[in-house]
Design brief:
Jelly Rolls; 2 helices; mainly beta; about 35% strand; globular; RmlC-like
Length: about 190
Amino acid sequence: MSIVRRLIAERGAHMTEALKKDHQTVTPEGKAVLPLIHDVRLRSAITHPDERGTICEIYNPAWNFSDAPVVYVYQVTLRPGRVKGWVVHYQQDDRVFVSQGTLKIVLYDPRKESPTHGMLNELCISEHNRGLLFIPRGVYHVLQNVGTTDVMFINMPTRAYNHADPDKYRLPLNNDLIPYRVDDRLDW
């Protein structure tokens, strides 16, 4: 007898009406099965430990991860429970590497010409599964620290920051354009 049938028999149908079966999210090898927004890329990083500590490669042009050269690099911290975004760029792509903490990144594709127009991606990257994320221009993104320690990430945008005319446009966290509600009140 299946688990669901047994639950129905033991507890009645009313107890199982609220049950929702999980869908597959990864392959047995750990590769995500959900599609990413068009042009978004995620490259997993391997951390190599030894008796002295660890080393983790962040970016190597030989990976062919991005055609654009590294022209500007900055580091960001985000306190537990805090949120940055929604942000979109029109002249640059972001290349974000999460090195510490647990960061939830939600992406929304409003680009009408994109084959994934209207798609949302929700990714979680942490020091336990470090990775380099390519966020193409025109894709909105919000970053939330969902851990209990500061998040630290590095961005290597494809264009240096223009202090006089920033390529950064913002929307309120909860808005009518993006079909996603950001909960900035985390319960640990």
